[in-house]
From TrEMBL:
It holds the Pfam family DciA. It comes from Polaribacter ponticola. This is DUF721 domain-containing protein.
Length: 98
């Protein structure tokens, strides 16, 4: 019977390795962007959001409310900064509110 090695790894390290080896980082970023949007904007904005997509460093937000779209357009730079800080990486350069 082979002797077991006593190396221990954290689940976080194992997940990062798995994601990297299976080339899943873009999909994980998309999920993280959606979760971060809901967290940062709160339930009021999240209920009026129909889709959140990340495409070539552009965050595309589809909203039901034209009034909300106009209000959020004034704070695009702040939203970009907050989202990038929350995700820990500069994934977003531009926001499109549609």
């Amino acid at each position: 019977m082979a002797k077991r090695e006593n190396d221990s790894f954290s689940i976080e390290d194992l997940m990062k390795t798995f994601i990297k080896q299976n080339n899943l980082s873009k999909g994980m970023q998309k999920i993280k962007v959606e979760e971060t949007w809901a967290k940062m904007m709160g339930p009021g904005v999240a209920t009026h959001t129909t889709s959140v997509k990340l495409h070539n460093k552009t965050l595309i937000i589809q909203l039901k409310s034209s009034v909300l779209r106009e209000e959020l357009s004034y704070g695009k730079d702040k939203i970009i900064k907050m989202m990038n800080e929350e995700m820990g990486d500069k994934l977003i350069n531009k926001i499109m509110l549609v």
